[in-house]
Amino acid sequence: MTADVLEINDALTQYDPVLGLEVHVELNTKSKMFCGCPTEFGAPPNTQTCPVCLGLPGALPVVNAKAVESAIKIGLALNCEIAEWCRFARKNYFYPDMPKNFQTSQYDEPIAFNGWTEVVVDGETYRIEIERAHMEEDTGKSTHVGGATGRIHGASHSLVDYNRAGIPLIEIVTKTIEVPPAKAAAVARAYVSMLRDLLFALGVSDVRMDQGSLRCDANVSLKPHGSTVLGTRTETKNVNSFRSVERAVTYEITRQAAVLSSGGKVLQETRHWHEDTGITTSGREKSDADDYRYFPEPDLVPVAPSREWVEELRATLPEAPSLRRVRLQEDWGFTDLEMRDVINGNALEPIVATIELGVTPAAAKKWWLGELARSANESGQDLDALGVGPAEVAEVQKLVDDGTLNDKLARQVFEGLLAGEGTPAEIIEKRGLALVSDDSALLEAIDRAIAANPDVVEKVNSGKPAAAGALIGAVMKDMRGQADAAKVRQLLNEKLGI
Amino acid sequence: MSDLTRKTAAELAELMTSGQASSVEITQAHLDRIAAVDGAVHAFLHVDTEGALAQAKAVDDKRTAAKKSGEQLSPLAGVPLALKDVLTQEGVPTTAGSKILEGWKPPYDSTVVKRLKAAGIVILGKTNMDEFAMGSSTENSAYGTTHNPWDLARIPGGSGGGSSAAISAYEAPLAIGTDTGGSIRQPGAFTGTVGVKPTYGGTSRYGLIALASSLDTPGPCARTTLDAALLHEAIAGYDPMDSTSINQPVPAVVEAARNGDVAGLRIGVVKELGGEGYQSGVEARFHEAVELLTKLGAEVVEVSCPHFEYALPAYYLILPSEASSNLAKFDAMRYGLRVGDDGTNSAETVTSLTREAGFGAEVKRRIILGTHALSSGYYDAYYGQAQKVRTLIARDFAKAYEQVDVLVSPATPTTAFAIGDRIDDPIAMYKNDLCTIPSNLAGNAAASFPCGLADEDGLPVGFHVMAPVMRDDLLYKVGAALESALAEQWGGVLMTKAPELEVTR
């Protein structure tokens, strides 16, 4: 009996991982890829459909020009070449959630190709080569009912929602990624995280991994140290958070290493990622003989973006992420180490957004890294899945600035926010967290502290004003922390005449 | 007023304009004719009596109102028409001649139907066709063969045999067909009627149940050139719902049909489309027609299109390839037939059982051919090579059109054959479309016009005219010239020679 997985360190001493990442991005166009149906997430099933996206007999597709524009922007942002002339192709296979039983996609003529981008992990920059970015349509969504696993196996019946059918997708495919073995999983995560930020900045997608508008398939293979021959790869589908990308890649490395080191063979297959248990399980066997019978889509004319248009779009691109990071670091006055923590904590975009709401960089960093990123890390969630956004952070900071809260109380407010207890105001109300600004209440507490600590008062009176600190501590304790320490110090000083 | 069914569409329009007949009367006359003869002809799969009469009444009401307001109705308003069952019409059964779509009522109108309705043209019903337009005889229809009104023991041609037979049997003055490899022109030739395949992209495919997307073209069928032109004008023109639609003005087809002057027109006889395999009566009528055009002042030369001989094999790779993909959607999941859904079978099994039961032999043959031709490892040798042939054929046309304005040939190598004659010999059946296929591969315009009866069997012969992309007007010019010259010989259009059908009541 061999172990299912090797320890990651053991795996990496024997094998080098080779990665390839395929990311599907749902574009945020108002209408679908080939028809005028709306694309809003969460509408009742099959209410956003028409003859075209239902693939009814006779219906024909028409390309959404806005989707082509978004595809070109993405291509340009990934330093790709943009095709002067390209076609859609039909990818033929049968599946009930695919209305036409072929997916209108692009095959050997992608809109964007030969690009590159960079990610930063632990202060090191890694270059990722981009093979292609192509346009395609999403399928419908199947819900398998009656089985234990929610998968088709064992289900009594399936329900199909075609609202998603025809939503424009861009598939971004990397070339093989070979980085220092120990960094592979972190680079994979950083790449997807970087893409999210980039796509967000481009404004082309909602990039909500939890809603499936950004989905990652991770191809992983191993080769023995020093070998140049690529191993058999698996494709782990639909890994839907940054953290999961890292975990799934790590898991596949350790699983494949166990298979190989016990003399077995890695099967070429798709694998399912299980968020709860942190493992992948076998999906559909995939062979190179998989034959999708691609051919140019005869219902569509070629897409031939003029060079003028491409240049116009290039001029609208936001700053490159690497340059932007340098600029932001300077603007904010963060040290390299602080900036690294921000990047690694995946907190760059939230901090930018929080600062835009009037919060100082230091305060924004304090809350995002100190409270929220820490909490996300502890609970194993992505930062943007916490339910606390820049608006809430800015609101809490405003309450600190106006003296309603101090940092200690603010932390408790965040605690409440993370626990879903309501708005900051509601939490303050419920938890009774506001600072006591009533002078008479503070003065009473000061009197009690003086009465209870005659020795300290003695010291202060004998020319050691620093000893007053102990009295402030006592007052704060008395007020259960709900007092502004500076105010207490001022009142105490007045009282003691120092 | 049963003679209403003998009128042309243009004449019927005139009767309505002058108040001598209403659309309801005209529509009822045709419905009566259908009831009387369609038992023998079987041109229709569905007759929409109620819908047609309601549409006719609406046009009559509109005409009454228009008299006061001075509003102009469309030229064909109130004229009835037969629609090939491959075009969707909202709420009306649409089968494409296949069991797999039995009972399906589309929730939307095809663009052609939208335009027919907008023009006030009354849709009588849906006509029979080879299943998914695969065939040249209607024998591949899942709902029985249509009979040729000239000889009920013969096929009317296909795939649009129902449409051509309907106008030939006076069940409708107008019909809509679709032409992928000759499905309008060949039945036109076999039934002594006019059939026009417009330029690919000149008429919209939206709502046309696809056979081969890069070839399918809807077009008009009629008993006269002018009627065909009027219908052509009503349905043609740019459609933003069809990406392959051409955004240019519709060629002046009606004007060309009214002034059939071929003096000085350069006509090229395609050398490769004739000779061996062509029936002598077909060749005789064809050459007489060419002579007639020469007498009318056309300059006739022989032109060689060397790659036309590869058109048929290329077509039978491209068409099945596209069809195999287009027909994949018929999986029993969303509409139409569903077999084996007993709660134990998987979706895959239900799809498989449904396709087994719902598709006919010819459809299965072409799905298998196309699936094979697109398979990895075969793609280059089959689909890829066929696309190259397609390019060469387009070049043959381009070169020819440097010398001449139009090309001509017989529409078909033979006249209509007997029912059952070729059904077991696919290659013999495919050869019917030898002359018509090149125009589909190149996407240009082509038409068949009646040019006489073959001596040996007394059956109609079609004269095939091919014109450059978006020069559909030239087809009508030649057709009109030929029609009026021949009418002097025959004392009317060729259809007046057709035998009377036995009327059943």
Automatic annotation (TrEMBL), chain A:
SUPFAM superfamilies: GatB/YqeY motif (SSF89095), Glutamine synthetase/guanido kinase (SSF55931). Residues 349-496 form the Asn/Gln amidotransferase domain. It comes from the Bacteria. The keyword GTP-binding does not apply. It catalyses: L-aspartyl-tRNA(Asn) + L-glutamine + ATP + H2O = L-asparaginyl-tRNA(Asn) + L-glutamate + ADP + phosphate + 2 H(+); L-glutamyl-tRNA(Gln) + L-glutamine + ATP + H2O = L-glutaminyl-tRNA(Gln) + L-glutamate + ADP + phosphate + H(+). It holds the Pfam family GatB_N. The keyword Magnesium does not apply. SMART domains: GatB_Yqey (SM00845). Transmembrane segments: none annotated. Keywords: ATP-binding, Ligase, Nucleotide-binding, Protein biosynthesis. Its EC number is 6.3.5.-. It is an enzyme of class 6 (ligase). PANTHER family: GLUTAMYL-TRNA GLN AMIDOTRANSFERASE SUBUNIT B MITOCHONDRIAL AND PROKARYOTIC PET112-RELATED (PTHR11659), GLUTAMYL-TRNA(GLN) AMIDOTRANSFERASE SUBUNIT B, MITOCHONDRIAL (PTHR11659:SF0). Heterotrimer of A, B and C subunits. Allows the formation of correctly charged Asn-tRNA(Asn) or Gln-tRNA(Gln) through the transamidation of misacylated Asp-tRNA(Asn) or Glu-tRNA(Gln) in organisms which lack either or both of asparaginyl-tRNA or glutaminyl-tRNA synthetases. The reaction takes place in the presence of glutamine and ATP through an activated phospho-Asp-tRNA(Asn) or phospho-Glu-tRNA(Gln). Belongs to the GatB/GatE family. GatB subfamily. This is Aspartyl/glutamyl-tRNA(Asn/Gln) amidotransferase subunit B. It comes from Kribbella pratensis.
From TrEMBL, chain B:
The keyword Transmembrane helix does not apply. It catalyses: L-glutamyl-tRNA(Gln) + L-glutamine + ATP + H2O = L-glutaminyl-tRNA(Gln) + L-glutamate + ADP + phosphate + H(+). PROSITE patterns: AMIDASES. Keywords: ATP-binding, Ligase, Nucleotide-binding, Protein biosynthesis. InterPro entries: Amidase, Amidase_CS, Amidase_dom, AS_sf, GatA. It comes from the Bacteria. Gene3D superfamilies: Amidase signature (AS) domain (3.90.1300.10). The active site is at 84 (charge relay system), 159 (charge relay system), 183 (acyl-ester intermediate). Residues 25-475 form the Amidase domain. Belongs to the amidase family. GatA subfamily. PANTHER family: GLUTAMYL-TRNA(GLN) AMIDOTRANSFERASE SUBUNIT A, TRANSAMIDASE. HAMAP family: GatA. This is Glutamyl-tRNA(Gln) amidotransferase subunit A. It comes from Kribbella pratensis. The lineage of its organism: Bacteria, Bacillati, Actinomycetota, Actinomycetes, Propionibacteriales.
